[in-house]
């Protein structure tokens, strides 16, 4: 399940965003060279600053 979120007419979430763990984020980022940080943020449930830190810590692994 991707971490997408939609709303009902009264703005209640239809589903809860489930945050991906760092291994899943790195796998998706490594295997999708055209993915943007914005798209990765929406799918993963993490904000962009968190993603940058996760990816920076992965460099050289």
* Biggest β-sheet strands, sense, barrel: none
Calculate the mean pLDDT score and round it.
83
Distance between the termini: 27 Å
Question: Secondary-structure element order, as H and E?
Answer: HHH
Poorly predicted spans: none
Describe the fold and architecture.
It is a single chain. The protein is an all-alpha fold and 61 residues long. The chain has a domain at 22-58. The protein contains 3 helices and no strands. The protein has helices spanning 22-31, 37-44, 48-58. It starts with 21 loop residues before the first helix and ends with a helix. The model has no long low-confidence stretch (mean pLDDT 83).
Give a topology summary.
Elements: H1 22-31, H2 37-44, H3 48-58
Short description:
The protein is mainly alpha-helical and 61 residues long. The protein is 48% helix and 0% strand. It contains 3 helices and no strands.
Defining traits:
single chain; mainly alpha; 48% helix
